[in-house]
Amino acid sequence: MAEEEEVHDQDLDDVSKREEEKKASMSASLSIWPPTQRTRDAVIKRMVETLSTPSTLSKRYGSIPIEDASAAARLIEEEAFSAASNSSTSTKPVDAYEDDGIEILQIYSKEISKRMLEAVKARAPPPSPSDHSQTTPPAPAVGEESSAFESESSHS
């Protein structure tokens, strides 16, 4: 009988260990931050599509050739990932790193958006002279009148 109890206790220990391992693997798989490499690759792929095919950004700023879009997307993602990771470790204690995964993910997303916009703006052709809606008058030189109204009123 003692042998049966010992085997039974060992079986219960094995079951408990397996349940703990299962819980640990489930919590790890539900982690929001850091994203898996597969997720990061999907983000890069989506950025390449946005930068190189008709999209809201390309309609306004022009599309980027796919080779350039691919290189830009990889760089943007790496920089955004680094910025998000650094922001979480510099402002939060280590044990809070997993607790605020959503906040870190938001930083990552905002960094990607900001950097994509900077990339397309940097490549955008300058506005044409015929497009008066986007041009601004040149700033007056030092010592010049600041407006036509002031220069006309000073000559009266």
UniProtKB/TrEMBL annotation:
Protein name as annotated: Uncharacterized protein
Q: Supply the source organism for this entry.
A: Persea americana
